[in-house]
Amino acid sequence: MNSIAIVLCIGIFLFIIQSIFIIFCLRWLASGKRKRDKEFAILDSERGQLIEMQSALSQEVQDAKKLANDTLNKLRIIGSEAHAEWEDVTKKINSVLLEVDKHSGIILEDNLSKLAMRSMSVEKIMKDAQLINEKIVENTRKAQKVLKLFDTNVPNEEIFKEIQSEKYFEAKKLLSEGVDASVVVKKLGLSMSEVVLLSAYI
Hints:
Elements: H1 2-149, H2 156-176, H3 181-188, H4 192-199
Transmembrane segments: 6-30
Protein name: DUF2802 domain-containing protein
Keywords: Membrane, Transmembrane, Transmembrane helix
């Protein structure tokens, strides 16, 4: 009887221990399941966040591509307009340069022509002035000779010698120009022997 009671006690004790073990295992499994569910929930949340981030990044990439394409198109338009404007400005500058070159050539040619005319005019004036000066000198010399004729202080012999010297000079000049000796004699009133003698020294 006692052994049966002991066996029963041992059986009950083992049953209690087994029950406790089963309960502990069930709790452990339940806690593990809750933990896994929690981890899965975290993973699902993170996956959702990753999906949202991926979607946001995709949208940002698309927006960036669109912005880049729009910017590139605008740059192409601006570049095309700038190139066209540059060509137009270049044409205008070339046209202005050609016009300036043309007008400068005309102005230079006109100024050179005026300068040449002025130079010729100045040269003519200088020649005329030289001729006038020579005439003035000649007239002055003649006037001095005439005044000398009326000067009572000058001897007649000196006046005669001077007149003869002038005749000789004029005779030499005429003979050197090829004038015949007889013509020189008649023109200056010299003797033929004087004219012949002068021609020997030419």
